[in-house]
Design brief:
The complex is a heterodimer of chains A (116) and B (114).
Chain A: E1 5-7, E2 10-13, E3 19-24, E4 31-38, E5 42-50, E6 53-57, E7 64-68, E8 74-78, E9 87-94, E10 106-107, E11 111-115
Parallel strand pairs in A: 2-11
Antiparallel strand pairs in A: 1-3, 3-8, 4-5, 4-9, 5-6, 7-8, 9-10, 9-11
Chain B: E1 5-7, E2 10-14, E3 19-24, E4 31-37, E5 44-49, E6 55-58, E7 61-65, E8 71-76, E9 85-92, E10 103-104, E11 108-113
Parallel strand pairs in B: 2-11
Antiparallel strand pairs in B: 1-3, 3-8, 4-5, 4-9, 6-7, 7-8, 9-10, 9-11
Classes of the chains: A mainly beta (116), B mainly beta (114).
């Protein structure tokens, strides 16, 4: 158990819909990361938040957005869903040490999104 | 865009054999991590290598970071069925500016047959 929790574990929805994925980081971790894992693209970094503020952006679509709340939990919002958005979505957290060349990221169990 | 190429993509060997998985890039990374992922679960960190030329050993697993910090390898000695899983390498480019998103290779699916 990494200490990172994600809900829901599974989500089935239809094209055009909007969903929200939730992540609670490990106690004490200030950074939260979102990743998407699909069979053809592998694990891809979407976005990072640090202590409530956006820190880095990866291959995140404009239809997707995220935020980190004062209690440090994070939500990933996916809208106008398409079939190709079906994937595993992982949240990871780290302490978020500024100036550090390494900062271990601990991954949650993921949310499996199926768009029908 | 930074890319990490992992090879082989699939590997099926007999218990007791040795194997090596490679992770290569044209980009330089501040650190490189190896993860193992089981079906339906999140990746679990095995090791982080930071210094060019660094070698780390974790029981039967040996990890090496290339001198130029562009490549890494994972060597497993006397593989066991419990080693079966998806092995992922991931590079970080957080050069003293705080952590950022990792760049992952597509992984090596390893099956160890008893």
């Amino acid at each position: 158990d990494s200490g990172v929790t994600q809900t829901p574990k599974h989500l089935i929805t239809a094209t055009g819909q909007r969903v929200t994925l939730r992540c609670s980081p490990r106690s004490g971790d200030l950074s939260v990361y979102w990743y998407q894992q699909s069979l053809d693209q592998g694990l891809q970094f979407l976005i990072q938040y640090y202590n409530g503020e956006e820190r880095a952006k990866g291959n995140i679509l404009e239809r997707f957005s995220a935020q980190q709340f004062p209690d440090l939990h994070s939500e990933l919002n996916l809208s106008s869903l398409e079939l190709g958005d079906s994937a595993l979505y992982f949240c990871a957290s780290s302490v978020g040490l500024a100036g550090a060349s390494t900062d271990t990221q601990y991954f949650g169990p993921g949310t499996r999104l199926t768009v029908l | 865009t930074q890319l990490l190429e992992q090879s082989p993509q699939f590997l099926s060997i007999q218990e007791g054999e040795n194997l090596t998985v490679y992770c290569n890039s044209s980009s330089v990374f501040s650190s490189l991590q190896w993860y193992r992922q089981e079906p339906g679960e999140g990746p679990v960190l095995l090791v982080t290598v930071v210094t060019g030329g660094e070698v780390k050993k974790l029981k039967r697993l040996t990890f090496q970071f290339g001198d130029a910090r562009k490549d890494s390898s994972l060597h497993i000695t006397a593989a066991q069925p419990g080693d079966t899983g998806l092995y992922l390498c991931a590079g970080s480019s957080a050069w003293g500016g705080g952590a950022d998103g990792l760049t992952f290779g597509k992984g090596t699916h390893l099956i160890i047959q008893p």
